[in-house]
Structures are given as structure tokens and as C-alpha cells.
Specification:
alpha/beta; 4-stranded parallel β-sheet; 8 strands; Rossmann fold; 2 domains; 10 helices
């Protein structure tokens, strides 16, 4: 009887899905694309939240306590909330030095690196700007890294992960050509941003951010800074104000009313707007918003 019971139970253990915790929705989507039906995901932040500030609630601790792995964005984007979440969960698999832990920023060439992390300079990320997934070319880099990560912790399904990656890469390459064609005429465009969220997107398409509404990252604009921006806009004549979904756009609206410059709400992740349901939606939206 015990032998029969063992035979019946063993397949459940052998073929159970990996349970992977991820910090943001874009990571979840890529992980699902590569992992297919061999993995389940737990996403810790919503796409319309400020990615810098996530409250490590008890519900999140419970979610990661039994995770088989953790994939983070990195570059200090989660520094304010993820370390304490990992510590309180007490799950050795998701510790930073574990083979089941993946920091995506370690595989990306970051821009704006080397800044002094002095609080007087605002919320500076010394390793570089952490919003690298907004360069659509980096999505393939991230997908390839996640493929390798899944193979490293689940070698028996490596052929599935490799095949899923190839399918994803083929579709993405076609979309890259479409977006490159759509954005080719935008090279040299000047814009204002609220926060430098779109640094990688702008770099990919040669769009120049001439100023930010935040005088320093994470620091609200003063009246003096706002008036200096209005003067700059009248002189330099940028095309748009790019604004994220999670900061108040009150100052941007005021600047728009005084200068006539158009305000564009630019989503940064899946779920940032109701219409953004996957990565293709995200970049279709971003590339179509700019006329």
C-alpha cells in the first residue's frame, strides 16, 4: 500500500510548477512568456503604483514566503521596500546571494550612472537610471536573461524555455521594426518630463529631455523652479511634457496652460492605464502618443 501511495504522490512533486515572485508587472509578463505553463508568478507591485515606493504589507510577505525564486528590476528601484520584505519573509530561496534570486539590472548597460547618492541631490540612483525596460530593445535582453535563469533552476524544462524565448523574440523583433519606423521622424524632438522615467525610451529614439518638472528626483517643484521652466519652454519650444501616472500633474497642467505645450500621460508599466494589458500595448501606446 505504501509503495502504491508513493507512486501516486511522486509525479505531483516532480511536475509541480515553479512559483516565481517578481517585483513589477512587466517582469511578470516576460517571465510568463518564457516560462509558459511550467511556472506560476506572484507580482508584488501594481503597474499604476509609484515603483519606488511599495508598502511591504503582511499580504506581500505571505506571498513570497513560499516562493521558489524572486526576480527584481534592481538598480536601487526597490531599495526602499524589497530588502525588508525579503528579511521578514524568512525564505532562504529569495535571499540576494541565492541561485534562485535574479537582479535584472546586473545584465543591462545603465545610463546616468555614478551619481553621488546624497539625499541633498534627491532620490538619486547611484548605479544608474533604473527604468531600463522602457527601451524596447532591452526587453529582448531581459527575456534572454530570464530564459537562462529559469533553465538554471529548472533544467528539465530547458527546451520549453528555449522554444518559448525564440517565439517571443521573433514576435518582438517584428514589433521593434514597426516602432523604429514609426519613431524615425521623432529624432531630435525636445521634451520636458516630470520625472526622468522615460530616459531609456527617449535615448532609443533620440528624443531630448531638456528639463524635468522635479528640480531633483523625488523633490517637488518650487514656484521659482516652475517659473524658470515656463521661461525655458518659451525659449526652447519643446514639443511635449511627458508625465507619469503616479505623480500629481497639477504643476504640469499649470505649465501647459501658460505655454501651450501639450501634456502627455505616458504609462511606464502594464496596468499603468486600463488599456495597457501587455508589453506590446505599452510600446504601441508610447510610440503612438507622440505625433
Amino acid at each position: 500500500m505504501y509503495k502504491i501511495l508513493l507512486v501516486l504522490l511522486t509525479p505531483l512533486a516532480l511536475f509541480a510548477n515553479l512559483n516565481i515572485a517578481v517585483t513589477y508587472p512587466y517582469i511578470e509578463v516576460i517571465t510568463k512568456e518564457i516560462g509558459g505553463d511550467k511556472i506560476d508568478t506572484i507580482v508584488l507591485a501594481r503597474g499604476n503604483w509609484d515603483p519606488h515606493f511599495v508598502v511591504p504589507r503582511p499580504s506581500l510577505i505571505s506571498k513570497v514566503r513560499n516562493a521558489d525564486g524572486l526576480i527584481m528590476n534592481g538598480a536601487h528601484l526597490e531599495i526602499g521596500w524589497l530588502p525588508q520584505l525579503i528579511r521578514r519573509a524568512g525564505n532562504s530561496k529569495i535571499n540576494i546571494n541565492s541561485k534562485y534570486f535574479l537582479n535584472l539590472s546586473n545584465y543591462i548597460k545603465l545610463i546616468n550612472a555614478g551619481q553621488n547618492a546624497d539625499r541633498s541631490r534627491g532620490d538619486v540612483h547611484p548605479n544608474g537610471n533604473p527604468h531600463f525596460h522602457l527601451d524596447p530593445n532591452n526587453i529582448l535582453v531581459i527575456a534572454n536573461v530570464i530564459k537562462g535563469y529559469l533553465i538554471s533552476i529548472d533544467d528539465k524544462n530547458k527546451d520549453i524555455y528555449k522554444s518559448n524565448y525564440q517565439k517571443f523574440a521573433s514576435i518582438w523583433d517584428k514589433k521593434l521594426q514597426e516602432w523604429n519606423s514609426k519613431m524615425s521622424s521623432k529624432a531630435g524632438m525636445k521634451v520636458i518630463e516630470f520625472h526622468n522615467v522615460l530616459a531609456y525610451f527617449n535615448k532609443a529614439y533620440e528624443i531630448n529631455t531638456i528639463a524635468t518638472i522635479e528640480p531633483l528626483p523625488g523633490i517637488p517643484p518650487s514656484s521659482r523652479h516652475t517659473m524658470s521652466l515656463i521661461k525655458l519652454i518659451k525659449e526652447k519650444k519643446p514639443s511635449y511634457i511627458f508625465h507619469d501616472v503616479y505623480h500629481s500633474n497639477k504643476t504640469a497642467k499649470y505649465i501647459s496652460s501658460k505655454t501651450g505645450i501639450k501634456l502627455l500621460i505616458m504609462p511606464h508599466d502594464i496596468g499603468a492605464l486600463d488599456s495597457i494589458e501587455d508589453l506590446v500595448d505599452l510600446f504601441d501606446y508610447l510610440t503612438s502618443a507622440i505625433k
